[in-house]
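Input (structure):
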């Protein structure tokens, strides 16, 4: 009988210790969700819509489409910012892209503004409707159609 009580006591102590360890361990949210919250708090009028398959869709008055992509299995980039606006981007669009990429990639806003404006302004008669460039360790791909211009900014995993 005493052996049975000692065994029960040991089990209760083990369960109590396991419960305390589980409570002490911090719950980690997804890094992509954390970045989306930083974007929403750091940029006026930006709202987080929903998340689907490692992409968080965002809305802002200066952009037609705006999304934050996070790395999934087998992709060679860590995060991606995709923004689509008018064919001739407005200063508010440039500011939005610069602010968002500065928060996502932890670079100064001036550097990201310079890279985004260079990429978007290079599209034209001589260079065509698709421009791929690299600026401050960021890969930028700008495309345009007859009505829209878009920019995708990524940073490779190894940088």
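Output (sequence):
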């Amino acid at each position: 009988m005493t052996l049975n009580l000692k065994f029960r006591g040991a089990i209760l102590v083990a369960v109590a210790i396991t419960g305390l360890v589980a409570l002490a361990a911090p719950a980690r949210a997804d890094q992509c969700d954390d970045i989306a919250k930083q974007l929403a708090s750091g940029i006026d009028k930006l709202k987080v819509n929903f998340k689907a398959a490692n992409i968080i869709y965002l809305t802002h008055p200066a952009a037609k489409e705006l999304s934050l992509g996070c790395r999934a299995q087998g992709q060679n980039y860590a995060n991606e910012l995709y923004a689509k606006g008018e064919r001739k981007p407005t200063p508010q669009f440039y500011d939005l892209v610069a602010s968002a990429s500065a928060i996502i990639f932890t670079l100064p806003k001036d550097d990201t503004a310079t890279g985004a404006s260079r990429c978007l302004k290079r599209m034209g008669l001589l260079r065509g409707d698709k421009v791929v460039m690299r600026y401050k360790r960021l890969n930028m791909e700008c495309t345009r159609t007859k009505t829209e211009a878009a920019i995708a900014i990524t940073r490779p995993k190894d940088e």
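Notes: The two ends are 63 Å apart (CA to CA). The first strand starts at residue 47 and ends at 52.
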